[in-house]
Write a structure and sequence with these properties.
Blueprint: H1 19-26, H2 34-46, H3 50-70, E1 76-80, H4 90-97, E2 102-107, H5 110-119, E3 127-132, H6 138-142, H7 145-150, E4 158-162, H8 174-183, E5 190-196, H9 203-209, H10 222-227, E6 233-234, E7 240-241, H11 254-257, E8 259-265
Parallel strand pairs: 1-2, 1-4, 2-3, 4-5
Antiparallel strand pairs: 5-8, 6-8, 7-8
Helix pairs in contact: 1-2, 3-4
Length: 268
Amino acid sequence: MQSEDGDVAPTIDVSVPHPARRYDYWLGGKDNFAADRESGDAIAAQFPGIRTAVVENRRLLRRAVTQLAAEQGIRQFLDIGTGLPTASNTHEVAQLIAPEARIVYVDNDPLVLTHARALLTSSAEGRTAYVDADVRDPDNILHSREVADTLDLNQPVALMLLAVMHFVTDDEDPYGIVKRLVTALPPGSCLVLSHATADWMPPETAAMIQSGKHGAGRLRGRDEVARFFDGLELIEPGVVPLAEWRSEATPPPAAEVAMYAGVARRPS
């Protein structure tokens, strides 16, 4: 099957759970299949806080993008692992502050691609684009036509890696991937990263979530998450439990969310 622009549309494998569709299920969306729901329910049975975690991750996105656009003057965003469109997507938050903001979304689920083309529409002053790619191949993202046509890599870019790097296992070089992406961006660019952790989980829960059938490739501790920001200048409050990052209200307990988050700037 071909899309309107002539690209061949990849096939959706509904028998295998996909993180973007499972995330949609936890958020109460309808763009998911039986395999996604089965996997999502299995994880929720062991870790009931998962729905709180995904809601808090979306709230973090809003806070971080607002901070970067309003306080750091960022006008370009590269959002990798964007997931299915929902309320307060990156471009919507950024363009409320700066209508001229430009955003490139990246994901590797064909269903996300279909919805992104239809729903992730920019303001008249700005621009959005979508890249069908995997974070594990950063050069494919950086050298894509969409990035070249949408972003000026001579000007600061916010790299958004929300709830994605825990799907990259140690043998897939997660730190090298992030370093490759960050070093391709100019000084003044920022990294926004959230990451699941087992720091507050019983060992059996962590083992199930990290299993090949259901989960994250690697839950990492705080020091391991902080390592993604090596060489960057952390913005206050640093690497903290996700819901506590510049929280606007009393956050849920760290153990209920079981994620860390941080925002950092590439120095001049």
